[in-house]
């Protein structure tokens, strides 16, 4: 599958040189992209476009796809902040508009992991013109009860008391990275509202939630909360399907193939208009 690295000028960032960097995967580079459906693949906190299952997922999808680094992550410009969720939502809008304007793509499928899922859900519910083309959303390890994130303040309590901020140490693309976490950012992140789903998330969109049952970052019950919220939508035929993966952690270590197979099979069954679940659960079996 041919891939192309794109550098998208960000018109909303204070730094006019800021660019979003991503990879466009095309099934056939010789075919026109005008009017074709596109899937966006969105990473989580301190992640990047090729982490976890995402790079391997792209060539398996039944459509062209684009995955990119949010601002402040890996190759993209701009600054990262724990509380910059609204900027992540802006990034999605910028990318969707660019892919439509430059390639003629219609973004119909969005696949988000963790933070990427949270902001994708918000973008879809934003009501912009481009969101009207969305048909399916895949929510992988999305946090629902945002207030529970406040535990992070206790984790970094000593550093916050000493310096005024915590230091989050992670590895990104194999390299050590340190970012500052301020109490105000923790509050803003924990106060992010998700109660809009029953009233504002488009009721015609089908949703698949995938959750690891051994997730130590996002409590597995949050996936049930999403299921309940999406099923409360009125006026449309969109359904929610939930798939739990036993023994899988937040990043699905050792389970990437099952994540990808589940996403691809779910999208394929959608396209064929086949049943997506049994009692709301994917591939239910005893």
TrEMBL record:
InterPro entries: AB_hydrolase_fold, Hydrolase_4. Residues 64-147 form the Serine aminopeptidase S33 domain. This is Related to ectomycorrhiza-regulated esterase/lipase/thioesterase family protein-Laccaria bicolor. It comes from Serendipita indica (strain DSM 11827). The lineage of its organism: Eukaryota, Fungi, Dikarya, Basidiomycota, Agaricomycotina.
